[in-house]
Design goal:
Elements: E1 3-8, H1 12-27, E2 31-32, E3 41-46, H2 51-63, H3 65-70, E4 75-80, H4 81-85, H5 88-91, E5 98-100, H6 108-115, E6 120-122, E7 146-153, H7 164-168, E8 172-173, H8 176-188, E9 193-198, E10 205-206, E11 209-210, H9 211-219, E12 226-230, H10 239-247, E13 254-256, H11 264-269, H12 276-289, E14 294-301, H13 308-321, E15 325-330, H14 348-371, E16 377-385, E17 392-395, E18 401-404, E19 414-422, E20 427-436
Parallel strand pairs: 1-2, 1-3, 3-4, 4-5, 5-6, 7-9, 9-12, 13-14, 14-15, 18-20
Antiparallel strand pairs: 7-8, 10-11, 16-17, 16-19, 17-18, 19-20
Helix pairs in contact: 9-10, 13-14
This protein binds S-adenosyl-L-homocysteine, iron/sulfur cluster (SF4) and FE3-S4 cluster (F3S).
Length: 437
């Protein structure tokens, strides 16, 4: 049996694309391996959102040269956001046999067949989204109980720092019937929790059916017990979505709503489309309606023109809104973006200082929020072994990671855990009982 190895960089959507490719390869008789050396086919699914993942992908691809030298029959394929943005950067790696983009990953089977005969470079134009024409194939689930479902691809917002609109094309929503078909199939396969994915998922709109409508539709699928959606955009997130979260028991009280900055001046330069006050108002509305909600966000520090005062406004926004989790990135200029023409004027050391300071504040907030869970009884969907491998781990409805001792047969089940220890990043607890299968 032929073997494939996939290395994935980047966001959940990339992970989902890789799972789909793996599913297609499995249907073609390939078997998955975790060892690139023993693979007949190696796929690198790349991310280009910041210089760091971009460089990581290049160095990973560079290292595959050794394998190609020892086993020249190995097919090496590179896909995803890096080649979609500039295929030339990949073509200089002479050991790469196949280069494809974000619009044709669904054609991986056919592309590989061609790559066995000659070097293939196929980057499609964003006007021909092949992805929607492909029949439903069982994706290869990294986690058999929690699955991603891409409901919207691309982005029209053009935040001035962001390359995604250039790598993923214009925004398009997946037909609700197709979403439901996929979710039903996942439920049949034993999946309990689905994450509806979109670059700006709350702008989901298919002929008038919006995200809230879709949440109601998905919630009717039997067997699916939990529904999450990500990523939200402060302009798209609205009261109707909050109402749906309140009304539908299965929808988890967790929102990832990236503010990026707390300074209205910087938000304007970022072309985010909202002010500091508008962001804060949305969060207050959400917390008022759903007091138990958990909030997470992304932040960029050291954006061109960000003064100490602007940064302090980000700190104060965090103080006001209170986050359960936050991801902080140093600004990284990206090709094609508007901000790449701005002067990258915050020195590297200062970006790093701001990153540390903001991360510290977010850590303190997470710690305080988690501490309140001490002694509480939480319903957890067991996902597998804990990151360290000795215990089991799973998540609460509001997305807190919980580790506890228990036997592996609990994986995929809902259990009650009494929280006995907390940290900023996870909760530890004692198994009380299995609640439902
Ligand atoms: N709306 C998107 C955001 C994708 S990019 C979504 O679906 O998740 C994820 C995060 O990367 C952004 O929220 C932003 O905080 C960060 N990011 C994007 N471009 C960046 C850049 N040029 N420099 C630093 N961080 C960046
Ligand atoms: Fe990028 Fe902005 Fe679109 Fe998110 S909303 S993908 S940050 S351009
Ligand atoms: Fe990266 Fe592309 Fe996702 S640039 S963050 S893999 S959309």
């Amino acid at each position: 049996m032929k073997k494939f190895y996939i290395k994935t960089f980047g966001c959940q959507m990339n992970v989902n694309d890789s799972e789909k490719m793996a599913g297609i390869l499995r249907s073609l008789g390939y078997e998955k391996t975790d060892l690139p050396e023993e693979a007949d086919l190696i796929i690198v699914n790349t991310c280009s959102v910041r210089a760091k993942p971009d460089n990581k992908a290049y160095s990973f691809i560079g290292n595959l040269k050794k394998i190609k030298k020892e086993k020249p029959e190995t097919i090496i394929a590179v896909g995803g956001c890096v080649p979609q943005k500039e295929k030339e950067s990949i073509l200089r790696f002479k050991h790469v046999d196949l280069v494809f983009g974000t619009f044709n990953f669904m054609k991986i089977g056919e592309l590989i067949k061609r790559a066995k005969k000659e070097r293939v470079v196929e980057i499609l134009n964003s006007k021909i989204p092949e992805e929607d024409k492909v029949p439903l194939i069982d994706s290869y689930l990294e986690n058999p109980y929690v699955a991603y479902v891409t409901v919207q691809r691309g982005c029209n917002r053009f935040c001035s720092y962001c390359i995604v609109p250039f790598t993923r094309g214009r925004e398009r929503s997946v037909k609700p019937e197709l979403v439901l078909k996929e979710v039903k199939r996942l439920a049949e396969r034993g999946v309990k929790e689905v994450h509806l994915l979109g670059q700006n998922v709350d702008f989901y709109n298919y002929e008038g059916i919006d995200l809230a409508d879709l949440l109601y539709m998905v919630s009717e699928v039997e067997g699916i017990e939990r529904i999450r959606f990500t990523t939200s955009h402060p302009c798209g997130f609205n009261r109707k979505i909050v109402e749906a979260m309140k009304n539908i028991e299965k929808v988890c009280p967790y929102v990832h709503l990236p503010p990026q900055s707390g300074s209205t001046k910087i938000l304007e330069r970022m072309n985010r489309g909202y002010t500091r006050e508008e962001y804060t108002e949305k969060v207050m509305m959400l917390k008022e309606e759903i007091p138990k909600v958990a909030l997470s966000g992304d932040f960029i520090v050291g954006f061109p023109g960000e003064t100490t005062k602007d940064f302090e406004e980000t700190l104060s926004l965090v103080e006001t809104c209170v986050f359960d989790q936050g991801f902080v990135f140093e600004y990284s200029p990206r090709p094609f973006t508007k901000a790449s023409n701005f002067k990258d004027d915050v020195p590297k050391e200062e970006k790093n200082r701001r990153l540390q300071e903001l991360q510290n504040l977010l850590r303190v907030q997470a710690e305080e929020k988690n501490k309140k869970r001490l002694g509480c009884i939480e319903e957890v969907l067991v996902e597998g072994k804990s990151p360290k491998g000795k215990e089991l781990s799973g998540r609460t409805k509001d997305n807190k990671l919980v580790v506890f001792d228990g036997s592996e047969e609990l994986v995929g089940k809902f259990v009650e855990i009494e929280i006995t220890e907390t940290s900023p990043f996870f909760l530890k607890g004692k198994l009380l009982q299995k609640v439902k299968v």
